[in-house]
Amino acid sequence: MILLPQSTKFLGIYMDENLRWSEHVVNLNRKLSRACYSLGILANYSTTDVKRTVYLANFEPSSRFVIIAWGGGRANPNTPNKDGNSALHISTSHIETNKTKIFACILVQYNAKMDSQNNNNHTPLHIAVYEDKEYLVEVLLESGESTNIPDASGITPMHRASLDRFRYPRIFTRLCAYQIL
Predict the structure, then answer these.
(1) Phi then psi dihedrals of residue 168, to 5 deg
(2) Would the pLDDT of 133 be above 80?
(3) What gap in Å lies between CA 14 and CA 180, rounded to an integer?
(4) Averaged confidence pLDDT in the chain
(5) Rounded (10°) angle between helices 97-109 and 134-142
(6) Mean pLDDT for the stretch of residues 86-97
(7) What is the pTM of this model?
(8) How far does the chain reach from its first CA to its final CA, in angstroms?
(9) How many angstroms separate the CA atoms of 136 and 59, rounded?
(10) What is the per-residue pLDDT for 63?
(11) Mutual orientation of helices 97-109 and 48-71 as an angle, nearest 10°?
(12) Of the residues 4, 13, 70, 157, which has the fewest C-beta atoms closer than 10 A?
């Protein structure tokens, strides 16, 4: 009896026996976490040029290779899954805090639509507000996502934050400040 591996690395991409990318995502997260740590250490002690060099050496090749490998250079970060979720919706909901911010920035760099809505009419900002991810709310707002897009129930991210302002005071304050600008 020949035992087959559950996952394998081929041309720099990890895939499992069902051709899923989960193993690759785990390994990419590890790699980007190490790069985040390096940038965090350098943040207070180096010039912008040094930080840019570290970024270009660690983040850029990984993200560019993944985009090319996943879509032959034509990968579309806005392609929805069966629930209408884009890559940004999924990353907002499932990836850990510091990794989500980095991944969201990479998706923005590759033209992810900030205001895309899933089958429940939730934008990534709706999800970030519902899940109390303040750091991601900031990235999405800075990238141009609107606070006033209603979901299927007619609730906007701003409305949700105001209803839960005692539960999520920092998100409510951030959204209010953004509304004023």
Answers:
(1) -125, 60
(2) yes
(3) 45
(4) 76
(5) 10
(6) 71
(7) 0.59
(8) 66
(9) 19
(10) 65
(11) 70
(12) 4
Q: What's the per-residue H, E or C state across the chain?
A: CCCCCCEEEECCEEEECCCCCHHHHHHHHHHHHHHHHHHHHHCCCCCHHHHHHHHHHHHHHHHHHHHHHHHCCCCCCCCCCCCCCCHHHHHHHHCCHHHHHHHHHHHHHCCCCCCCCCCCCCCHHHHHHHCCCHHHHHHHHHCCCCCCCCCCCCCCHHHHHHHCCCCCHHHHHHHHHHHHC
Please report, to the nearest 10 degrees, the dihedral formed by the alpha carbons of residues 91, 102, 62, 9 taken in order: -40
In one-letter notation, the amino acid at residue 133 is K
Mean local confidence (pLDDT), 118-142 = 87
Q: Which amino acid is at 7?
A: S
Return the biggest CA–CA distance within the chain. 67
pLDDT over 90 (residue 179)? no
Tokens 């919706």 appear where? 89
